[in-house]
Amino acid sequence: MAVPTAPALPGEALLEIFVHPASIPATQQIDPTNKFSDGKRLAVLGQSMVELAYMDVMHEKWPNVETVQLQTLVNSTINGFMEKSTNAYRWKERVCGWPRNVNILHDHEEAYRLFRAYAGAVYVEYGYDVLKKWIKDLTMF
């Protein structure tokens, strides 16, 4: 089965996601006219939203599972889910400005950062329902 198409994002979002944070000056100001401004903020937002949507999808798949079991399932599988998805989209290959002493192609944290930032941008652009549908589709491939 092919990887589901990721929700399309505008160029300003893609720049925030695929420019490595190490190449962005610490003094760079947030652009109030760009709702995607600051990829780090997108990743923080995305972390919460991915956890929520993934938990929601897992709860739909297993509605009779107890809360503790569901939390254990989510906590033990979400990182693998994000890494598998990031690798399927080959997003690491699109990153610009990463430190040359770091091999991002084998960096688990970079996979999580990319997925979370993309998810954060999806949430900002389209809202929760689109994000959840995308995550649900990803759990089935």
Overview of this structure, please?
It is a single chain. The chain is mainly alpha-helical. Helix content is 60%, strand content 0%. It has five helices and no strands. Helix 2 crosses helix 3 and helix 4 (108-126) packs across helix 5 (128-139). The longest helix has 23 residues, at 39-61.
What's a quick, concise take on this entry?
60% of the residues lie in helices and 0% in strands.
Unreliable spans: none
- How many distinct helices? 5
> Could you tell me the mean pLDDT?
93
How many strands?
0
Rg measurement, Å: 15 Å
Q: State which percent range the strand residues make up.
A: under 5%
Work out the helicity level: 55-70%
Report the principal-axis shape.
globular
- Helices and strands, in order, run as HHHHH
Give the N-to-C terminal Cα separation: 6 Å
Largest pleated sheet: none
Structural class: mainly alpha
